[in-house]
Amino acid sequence: MKHLPIIILLMVGSTALAQTNHMQHMKTDSAAHKQTMPHDHAKMMADMQHDTTKHMMMMTSQFSRDLPMNRDGSGTSWVPDETPMYMYMVHSKNWMHMFHGSFFARYNDQDVFNKGRRGGSQFDAPNWFMYMAQRKVGNNGLFSVNTMFSFDPFTVGPGGYPLLYQTGESYKGAKLVDKQHPHDLFAELSVAYTQRVAKNTDVYLSVGMPGEPALGPPVFMHRLSAMNNPDAPLSHHYADATHITFGTATLGFRYKNVKLEGSVFTGREPDEYRYDFDKPRFDSYSVRLSVNPSKEWALQVSNGWLKSPEVAEPNDNVNRFTASAIHTKMLGDDSYVATTLVYGQNRHHGRTQPAVLLENSLQLHKTAIYGRYEYVQKDAGELDLEDMFANDPNFNINAVTLGVNRILATVKQTNLTMGLQSTLNFSPAALKPLYGSSPVAFQVYLRINPALMKMGETKRSHQEMNMDM
Q1: Which range is the signal sequence, renumbered to this chain (predicted)?
Q2: Can you give the residue range of the structural domain that contains 430?
Q3: Are 439 and 164 in contact (CB under 8 A)?
Q4: In-domain check, residue 396
């Protein structure tokens, strides 16, 4: 058994060498034939060889047979093609199955030095798990299934986890403030069908109960720049909080690297009963334009008209605008740098409240160094402080997070990672009596998630799928 890794390496090396020799023979034969074939015939053969090689190397997106799977973000959103994938894959005769997820076991203290009265601490385990499947339909069709589950209601608690200055949703009739709400047990159950209608052109329909409408950037759990941070951004409800929507339908059109989408969906956030299915209303709308100018960039701009998103403020409708830029650069087979910049704003009850997020993750083999900066504007009502501030002023909130983690072991394509991070919050002057001038948060965690799929593994997986089909 101790020689098994060497044998596997030799087998993989031999396979790669054989494939290289085979490709070299193909190129030599093709060059020889080109000397005797007419120009058009030679060009046709070269195009066929290029298309075959491209097909062999690329696992396709769930929403296009012409795009790489690496481009798929959450819902129907895009990330850069350069984005590596952390998942397991299993191929059957006609289907490709994918498993993805993350589990944090941590201790979280939101006010280490007890500077204020709003911090909290607890042991908990934020988590989420995905199962995805897809299959080709005829010559130009593609059918896909997406599911996502979270055991947050059990491992975090129905009231969520402590997070200073976080707002959004309710529990036991009160607004959740300085806490991040738990995600629902059923976070996504959606299906999609894509039809290739012309070269580099797709039309698709995605429906979910729950699902994610075409609004905002990919949700934070599915952004490479945020995957190491267990916390939701303070700007979550300004940009990507609609990722769990009970009732959504999205129609999209893609031409090359440009995509236009529109959604109709339920504006109301999930209720405090995290194990059931909320009533679908289909009373809200959104539109999103996505552009990937190169394999390293993904850009989007979107707008949503949300009807009564918060149960605590049922008469408050929200106009949400977002814009984002995501950049990913591979530095090696297991090293990369990923950066995301997001601007989001909510316009409601006559005010426009902006939020800016900048996050980055530098992965160097087994060690990751990551950070997040946020600026968020929230009013007294959102922080549940109307009694203290009758005129409901806006407060400017800033927070900086730095963290580091290291992969301790990889067993059966699964990483065990240990990390720690700290957040420095900058309190507005009027809120210092409650929060302190600069409360410091700290957490330490163990993380379990699928290991990085390297390029050689993705090529072999796709070749196995082609052989099965």
Answers
A1: 1-18
A2: 58-457
A3: yes
A4: yes
Q: Using an 8 Å Cβ cutoff, are 445 and 104 in contact?
A: yes
Residue 89 belongs to a domain with what CATH number?
A: 2.40.160.10
Number of domains in the chain: 1
Tens digit of pLDDT per residue, the chain (469 long)? Answer: 333 333 333 333 433 333 334 444 444 444 444 444 444 554 544 444 444 334 334 589 999 999 999 999 999 999 999 999 999 999 888 999 999 999 999 999 999 999 999 999 999 999 999 999 999 999 999 999 999 999 999 999 999 999 999 999 999 989 999 999 999 999 999 999 999 999 999 999 999 999 999 999 999 999 999 999 999 999 999 999 999 999 999 999 999 999 999 999 999 999 999 999 999 999 999 999 999 999 999 999 999 999 999 999 999 999 999 999 999 999 999 999 999 999 999 999 889 999 999 999 999 999 999 999 999 999 999 999 999 998 999 999 999 999 999 999 999 999 999 999 999 999 999 999 999 999 999 999 999 999 998 755 544 444 444 444 4
Would 41 be classed as within a structural domain?
no
Burial of 404 (0-12, 13-18, 19+ CB in 10 A): middle
